[in-house]
Automatic annotation (TrEMBL):
Keywords: Signal
Official protein name in the record: DUF2782 domain-containing protein
Signal peptide: 1-28
C-alpha cells in the first residue's frame, strides 16, 4: 500500500513539474513574440485616418450654375449680381470690397398666414425661494 502511494505521489510530482515547465515556456514565448508598443508606435496608430479621404469624380455633379440676369460693379469694388430663372425665386448677391457678402431672396412660403387665436396665453411668474 505504501508502494502505490509513493507511485501516485511521484506521478503527481512529475505531472506538476511538467505543467510548470510548459507554462513557463508558453509565457516566455508570449512575452518575446509580442512586446508592448512604445509611445511612438501608439501615436502612429492613433493618428491614422479612419477611412481614406473621399474625392469627387467626373460623374458627380457640382453646384448648379445659374445664369445671371443682372450684374453691376461699382468703381469702389461693390458687386451686385441678380439670378433669376424660370420657376425659382430671384436671388441677389452683394459683395463689397472690404469682404462683406450679402444674399437676398424671397422667403420660400409666400402664402399669407392667419394668426392662431385659439391659444390662450398665461402669464409666467417667477417666485424666488
Amino acid at each position: 500500500m505504501n508502494n502505490t502511494r509513493s507511485i501516485k505521489l511521484s506521478a503527481l510530482i512529475a505531472f506538476i513539474t511538467f505543467n510548470m515547465i510548459v507554462i513557463n515556456q508558453v509565457t516566455a514565448q508570449n512575452t518575446t513574440s509580442s512586446p508592448a508598443l512604445d509611445a511612438k508606435e501608439l501615436e502612429l496608430i492613433n493618428r491614422q485616418p479612419i477611412s481614406p479621404a473621399a474625392r469627387a469624380n467626373e460623374n458627380v455633379l457640382g453646384t448648379e450654375k445659374r445664369p445671371t440676369s443682372f450684374e453691376y460693379q461699382e468703381n469702389k469694388g461693390t458687386k451686385i449680381t441678380e439670378y433669376s430663372s424660370d420657376g425659382r425665386p430671384v436671388e441677389i448677391q452683394v459683395d463689397s470690397r472690404v469682404g462683406t457678402h450679402y444674399e437676398m431672396s424671397k422667403p420660400i412660403n409666400q402664402s399669407p398666414t392667419v394668426p392662431n387665436t385659439s391659444i390662450q396665453r398665461v402669464p409666467s411668474i417667477q417666485l424666488p425661494f
